[in-house]
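W.,

You were right to be curious about this one. When I first looked at the sequence I had no strong expectations either way, so I just let the prediction run and decided to look at it fresh. Below is the sequence, 502 residues in total, followed by the output.
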Amino acid sequence: MFAAVRFSTVTARRSVGRYAFARSFSNTSRLGDQYDVVVVGGGPGGYVAAIKAGQMGLKTACVEMRGSLGGTCLNIGCIPSKALLAASHHYHDAKHNFEEHGIVINGDVTMDIDKMLDTKQKKVEGLTGGIEYLFKKYGVEYFKGKGKLSGPNSVGVTLNEGGSEESLETKNILIATGSEVTPLPPVPVDNAGGKIVDSTGALDIAKVPEKMAVIGGGVIGLEMGSVWSRLGSDVTVIEFLDRICPSMDQELTKKFQSTLKKQGFKFNMKTKVTESKVTDDGVVLTTEPSKGGDSKEETYDVVLVATGRRPFTEGLGLEELGIQTDKLGRIEVDEHFKTAVPSVYAIGDCIDGPMLAHKAEEEGIAAVEIIAGYAGHVNYNAIPGVIYTYPEVASVGKTEEELKEAGTAYNKGSFLFSANSRARANGSSDGFVKVLADKETDKILGVHIIGPNAGEMIAEAVIAIEYGASSEDLARTCHAHPTLSEAFKEACMDTYDHPVHM
């Protein structure tokens, strides 16, 4: 009886909410051909914002020049790279770890690269088609073409097919054009040539290179380096700084780098690339110490340039409207995602903050809610970051270095996966969970994980930070046994008291 009453109440609330959204715009959303919002960019931030706007009863259009929704993430980034990471992990497991579990393969384990790439592409196409379906479901009009702001309330679109021009009149414009690869002048990318590639070209390497250089020790380089390392490449990471993933917790990245070394990665730290030459045999890279010194040359079959990304705002017409960008090319917005032009908003990679798909999605929803007259909000301290190598690496909140710099007194607790029964049973027990909490209040300030399934485990930490939980709150919360998440519970126990199993 109680369950039935509760369900009816929740259903009623949802119905009222949906009706309220539609009612709010019933008087303004169909004035001629004017849209309530036109979203420029169909990546994770843009397409999510467009769908949300459609759900709220706004007359919505989305402009995307790629001709395929999902942006960099779905087409040439997050999703295809995860498909390759999964495939290469299966291969590596079969080749090196199956025997330990009693699985004997008679004959060689081989990888069909063409099949792997074909499967990757099919997964991408299936997901992009799904977004188009959602657009139709929620009444979002989709324009395939290059968008440009032609005024504070209009977007011009050069259509991909035929090159004709469309003019979309709108009350509000939401810029969600994402980012592009930052070029490295001494190493010009030629994805078609297949020898010097960026993150896009690394998804379509036709055969396993014997020697591969990854320029840049960040997330993208280490993920794609892992793919080809597992498949047999001798991978060398060339990093300008003295550590990999410099924005992450230092204890975490130190463990991460040592783990990658065990997997066969080589690291040339505090090193810069000054020149590259493409030859018949591969690519000759000239490097020297970051602070200057003697140079040396090394030849690689393939070089992956992974030195970061920059906002993509070219040809948007920002300057003509007086919309400012900062020195890094990011569009300047206020706390409500508004630019200097009140009717123009911006979200995602083209504004300040981490270049993450899920950050863009949250901003897209918040911006649309603000446009609709509601209170949209994003808690930037509760945005997780994940590196999908094996083991995975995940973080949320403050690093230990940030707390020290801010003079914040804190307690630290940690727990090794080698003391976790599920990790031991699975045969994957490398890594740890680290929890940082305020010394006085015990409020969780940061969580950092390296280990199996870290990318999923971090969600519990995100919720904890979002709701202001203490380490004791989570330590006293029952976790199923045996699970990897018990390591998080025990790390919280170590933060405010003592763990049981270590």
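Here's what jumped out at me. The mean pLDDT is 93. And, maybe more interesting for your project: The two ends are 46 Å apart (CA to CA).

Coffee later to discuss?

I.
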